[in-house]
Amino acid sequence: MDTGLAGKVALVCAASRGLGKAAALGLAAEGAKVAMCARHMPTLEAAAAEIQAETGADVLAIGADVSRRSDITRLVDQTARHFGRLDILVTNSGGPKPGLFGATTESDWRDAIDLVLLSTVLLCMEAVPHMRRQGGGRIINITSISAKQPIAGLMLSNALRPAVTGFSKTLANELARDGILVNCVAPGYTRTERVIELAEATAAREGVTTDVVERRTVQNIPLGRMAEPSELADLIVFLASDRGRYVTGTTIPVDGGYLRGLM
Ligand code: NAD
Q: How far apart are CA 212 and CA 225, in angstroms?
């Protein structure tokens, strides 16, 4: 399949590991030039070097915290200056703090709004003028299945992922005439470093093996297993590619059938 991604410039956020790294690798493997960011420079540089070695793509590592306004401005500016354009933006960050409403403070809410919602809004604010000037672009926001169906014990995620969905849908309508397509991808349980660490911590707490914890996680997934990060990346590559040119304003789950609703 010719994706038409060769030579396109992508900025993938929160990409030193997990879903962001898989998205950066997927786009680089299709010939895109990729800028990737995370807060911890040595880990990010190692991830960038790995992707460069595996794909031969032009990869740029930029240290940035997406919950900080000044970092976002610098990140988009540095990407556009280095590569001369910006075609694809993949927004992503670490997840907000887990917990019930009763365990959250006002400062938890403000931090989560900065990390999940405002980071997405501000990245778009900085990236859209570049895309408009070029006559088009793609924005792909990594959210969660909690955008469609609340997950028990994840109050902040359940409240803020739908806000990103509403923002994206509205932005898609506003930017369609500029040739800029905006979509969300909603991962279900995916075997990233964070998910493995959480399973190991639960197993240690309960005195069971990680296999037991994992079996419990997958029992509600019709496909009977967690996703691999590359399986979300495959959808991101499609949405960024020429083949995804008529898809905008939607949220697509990659969840092995986990969500129970019709839409
Ligand atoms: P991960 O912890 O494996 O990777 C997160 C990445 O984000 C790392 O590279 C980290 O350095 C970077 N990061 C974190 N905070 C950042 C910040 N403020 N600025 C810049 N970079 C930052 O996590 P993951 O499993 O890949 O998850 C990525 C996102 O997808 C999270 O928001 C998570 O809640 C969401 N999600 C994950 C799953 C899953 O099963 N893995 C399911 C649904 C949603």
A: 13
Give distance in angstroms: CA of 14 to centre of ligand 1: 6
Query: Residue 119: what pLDDT?
Result: 98
Pair 92, 168 in one domain? yes
Does 104 lie in the same domain as 74?
yes
Is 79:11 a contact under the CB 8 Å cutoff?
Answer: yes
Is the per-residue pLDDT at 1 higher than 90? Answer: no
Residue of the CA atom closest to atom 7 of ligand 1: 14
What digits encode the pLDDT tens for the residues 181-211? 999 999 999 999 999 999 998 999 999 999 9
Give the number of the atom of ligand 1 that is nearest the alpha carbon of residue 146.
Answer: 43
Burial of 86 (0-12, 13-18, 19+ CB in 10 A): buried
Domain membership of residue 214 as a residue range: 189-226
pTM higher than 0.90: yes
The residue contributing the CA closest to ligand 1 atom 26 is: 18
Token code pair at residue 58 = 């032009």
Residues 184 and 220 occupy one common structural domain: no
Q: What is the 195 CA–ligand 1 centroid distance (Å)?
A: 10
- 3 inside domain: no
- Residue 173 domain-assigned? yes
Report yes or no on 82 lying in a domain.
Answer: yes
- Which residues have CB under 6 Å of ligand 1? 14-20, 37-40, 65-67, 92-95, 115, 142, 144, 187, 189-190, 192-195
